[in-house]
Design goal:
7-stranded antiparallel sheet, 16 strands, GH16 domain-containing protein, ConA-like_dom_sf, mainly beta, Jelly Rolls
């Protein structure tokens, strides 16, 4: 079972800190005597790399790091669904050290609740390029079966998904991994749902459920080529879709950690989802072994970010 269709998302950029804002303004305005026609330097230039490739291992200082936006990411704030509406917060996004991660650093998505809507904070980090279509999507993700603090049992959803920039698009496309350690919507957990969407409203999608615990690190992959979408977990194929349930327009990658509902009080608790790295290869089906080989090469070379995907 997949999530009920979310309410329209309101995408709002996180605010830059004052020093970062001054830095950006200075780069745009130039100093005395500068040639007005000279282009402003990028906050963090896109490095060269294999063509049609996106890679990021999330080596950032925080959600207001100018390089995060320069590399095509934003932390969602403001209103809309899914889950507890109007509870999206940048406070849950961080980039801590983690000895269990390749390279020792992660994107951490920490959601929290005290069982009330007012006391709930959800977190989502999303791409902004609107330029990912067919090919291979992969991410190394850590799912949690238990809260980092507080009581367990919440209906939390930990997700990785490429999705259309607009829910109202006539060519709406969405390819989901959704992990529900405690179930939800009247179903028992744990469960890992893979879902291919054709239309957001009314919902039109096909899905598959893997009923097993998935706590820990996993490589999640979606390939979309030649009219077929294939989902795999650690190299094992889970589900395929075809026909109308394939991408029809360019998408962005999202990572999200949110609550279906707030069924119980019981004090504050926090839930962590972590992302080690993300990879995309345009217009090619790449095996997990070859994805990992490429990622290992980036780490060995000290490369934190590559984006050679043509802009939208």
């Amino acid at each position: 079972m997949s999530q009920p269709r979310r309410a329209p998302r309101h995408r709002v950029w996180t605010a830059l800190t004052v020093p970062a804002l001054l830095c950006v303004l200075a780069a745009c305005s130039g100093g005395p005597g500068d040639d007005a026609a000279a282009p402003a330097p990028s906050v963090s230039p896109t490095p060269s790399g294999p063509p049609g490739t996106l890679f990021d291992n999330f080596h950032y200082s925080g959600p207001d790091d100018p390089s995060l936006a320069a590399h095509g990411w934003e932390v969602r704030t403001g209103g809309g669904g899914p889950g507890i509406k109007d509870s999206w917060s940048a406070a849950g996004a961080g980039f801590p050290s983690d000895t269990t991660a390749q390279g020792g650093r992660v994107l951490q998505l920490r959601s929290s609740t005290d069982g009330t809507g007012q006391g709930t904070r959800q977190v989502e980090v999303q791409g902004t390029g609107k330029n990912l279509f067919t090919g291979t999507f992969a991410a190394r993700v850590h799912f949690s079966d238990k809260p980092t603090s507080g009581r367990g049992g919440d209906h939390v959803v930990q997700t990785f998904f490429p999705i259309s920039p607009s829910d109202e698009s006539a060519n709406y496309s969405e390819l989901d991994f959704e992990y529900l350690p405690n179930g939800g919507w009247g179903t028992a957990g744990p469960r890992l749902d893979t879902v291919s969407w054709y239309k957001a409203d009314p919902p039109d999608r096909v899905s598959h459920t893997l009923k097993q615990r998935a706590e820990g690190w996993h490589v999640l992959m979606v390939t979309a080529m030649n009219g077929t979408v294939t989902y795999s977990l650690d190299g094992k194929e889970l589900f395929t879709s075809s026909g109308k349930y394939v991408p029809r327009e360019k998408m962005d990658i999202h990572f999200s950690n949110w609550f279906i509902d707030t069924p119980a009080t019981g004090g504050p608790r926090t839930w962590d989802m972590k992302v080690n790295w993300v990879y995309y290869k345009a217009d090619e089906v790449v095996s997990q072994a070859d994805v990992q080989k490429t990622v290992d090469g980036f780490y060995s070379a000290g490369t934190d970010y590559v984006n050679t995907v043509p802009k939208a």
